[in-house]
Amino acid sequence: xxxxxxxxxxRTSVYNALRALADAGLVRVVQAGPGTTLYELSxxxxxxxLCRHCGEIADVPAGSEVPPLLNxxxxxxxxxxxxxxxRGICAGCLQLPL
Length: 98
Ligand SMILES: [Zn+2]
Known about the structure:
Dna Ligase, domain 1, binds zinc ion, alpha+beta
């Protein structure tokens, strides 16, 4: 259970609410890897960068062009969205002493 201001909320209730918001198109769900799911308000299209050292997730502008990898034709299907998660080490972590 999650506690806030002395009250409790079941974790499943939170996920059900997030799922409902995602189904309504108000929240975007980003699968950033095993055990890492990001829920964010729907807005402008962008990608994400995930630092494997500190776990920070940063927005990356998507730009106006569709990358060739995402310009895909799946016979019989209509692609409605795509997500790119870049992984590496962020600028801050690269400056840390080894
Ligand atoms: Zn980092």
